[in-house]
Amino acid sequence: MKIAVLVKQVADTAAKIELQPDGSAVKLDDVQKVLNPYDEFAVEAAIQLKEKDGGEVTVVNVGPDSADEAVKTALAMGCDRAVVLRDGEAQGLDPAGTAAVLAAMLAREEFDLVLCGKQAVDDDAHLVGPAVAERLDLPVATFATSLEVADGKAVVGRDADGIRETLAVPLPAVLTCQKGLNEPRYPSLPGIMQAARKPKDVVTLADLGMNPEPRVARQGMTLPPPRAEGKVLSGEIPDQVKELVQLLRNEARAV
Amino acid sequence: MATIWVYLETNPKGLSKASLEALGEARRLAGDGRVTGVLIGSGVGALAEAAGHHGADEVLVADDAAHADFNLDVHVHLMRRALDGAGADLLLMPVSVHCRELSARLAAALDTGLAPDCVRSETVDGTVHWTRPIYAGKAFETVTPGGSPGIVTLRPNNFEALAPDTGRAASVTPLEATIDADRLRLEVREAVAAAADKVPLTEAAIIVSGGRGMKDPANFALIEKLAGTLGAAVGASRAVVDAGWRPHAEQVGQTGKTVSPVLYIACGISGAIQHLAGMSSSRTIVAVNKDPEAPIFKVADYGIVGDTLEVLPLLDEEFKKLLA
Questions:
Q1: Are residues A162 and B194, on separate chains, in Cβ contact within 8 Å?
Q2: Residue A252 and residue B301: Cβ atoms within 8 Å?
Q3: 3-class secondary structure per residue, B209-241
Q4: Where does chain A hold its CATH 3.40.50.620 domain(s)?
Q5: Domains of chain B, CATH where assigned
Q6: A41-70 confidence digits (pLDDT tens)
Q7: Which of B132, B283, B297 sits opposite A254 (nearest CB)?
Q8: Which residue in A10, A147, A163 has the most chain B C-beta atoms within 10 A of its own C-beta, making it the best mutation to test that interface?
Q9: ipTM of the prediction greater than 0.90, yes or no
Q10: CA B201, CA B219: separation in Å to the nearest integer?
Q11: What is the value of pTM for the model shown?
């Protein structure tokens, strides 16, 4: 089976986020970057499928040169090869543009399964998986927390806001992965050594014949307003509890 | 004059709260323009009247027993059919797992812009600017989705539903609900709803959330009890989810759910940056923690420094008295 895993490099979730002085973008230069946590579940799922049934796992990435690190992590975990788009013109693409580019990269080969995280933890758009599926005219199942592939079908379990669903899609298909699907492995030392030697194709927008236009106009970014100083209560605990409930009713009007 | 469409989600009790909020926002933005609601499902026709009371001028209804469970392929197909040539300027949808995949797939199919998870709108020189959290709320971006229709999903608890006006009536137009079998590739083999009294975390007006300070998974019974008293949803920190104490569906934070309830009660949660990102846009935050230096107190409106296991039963008792 040929599996593609779409990965993105994102700021570490422990990072403090600051903006450029003009508010046009997030300051990312000095921020620790990692493989998007949800993409780790996709990489792990792909490697497990390969280990069970054989095949090849291709990492696919659109990003700046620094994203090579995230690609390397996926290769070190056990993916076989990478196809990456590196193009100055692709910097700052919106998620829809990224999805269009990823779909064009995938269309150059045949894959049985395309896996990715349910969302990237930077733009939080949850867009790329379903949008890639639409552009490739493939079925999609999102938020997978369980996965079985057999008889040309992927069977996915998921939680849809309190509804426990079991979905089946014929291959080829796109699946997006949610926490709970598996426990992503850490790259082994030999894995890390081998990663640098695994094949990597680098393509540009010109190679794809693409010039994606943004679908969303960006007006700027802001940081959340600081919260007003809170009240730490004092006294005996039972009295604090009584006071708290009164404050929630009469001051905050929250209950 | 704008024509605004609203994709309406339903639950066993009727139109979802977030759908009513989307209708309210559509009504405010449309001004004298037209608000069109879309209902797809089984037995949903009866809800068209309520959509009218909450702001819709017209409701398109695809009511078919075959559509009892949400099937993405069905909803994409029917939405495309309905939107084709209808001249919608904007399509609003609630935020949910189903609407996330539907909005993303539709936007790609129509080649229009999508602004997901918006929490605020502002009209500037005739253009609506939508604000949405990024990095789980560590920052916000303001965007306008292009195309016809641009698509915007609205996070629950951030937009006002209109008070229902039973004098308002919407016209009801049936939507052809049948679909060619070859368009259906996705098969829904099972869809089992959680207990009807369980409030989804992202829609909940009140969340009672627990962390390591609960000391033992069994102690979450105290949180569940208080949540029951308040009609609240139960949340959890990443630490207790990773430890296997609570299901991931309850995790609040950057690798869980971002929530903005009216009231968030954090019990025994220290407040790691990933957790704060996911809940610090809540309207009122209460923190109960033994450690007065815990970062959760920096975002809390009210804090009790103490053992959450001692505080929880007292809180439950006090709220029971208040709400009795």
A1: yes
A2: yes
A3: EECHHHCCHHHHHHHHHHHHHHCCEEEECHHHH
A4: 2-208
A5: 3-183 (3.40.50.620), 206-323 (3.40.50.1220)
A6: 999 999 999 999 999 999 999 999 999 999
A7: B283
A8: A163
A9: yes
A10: 20
A11: 0.95
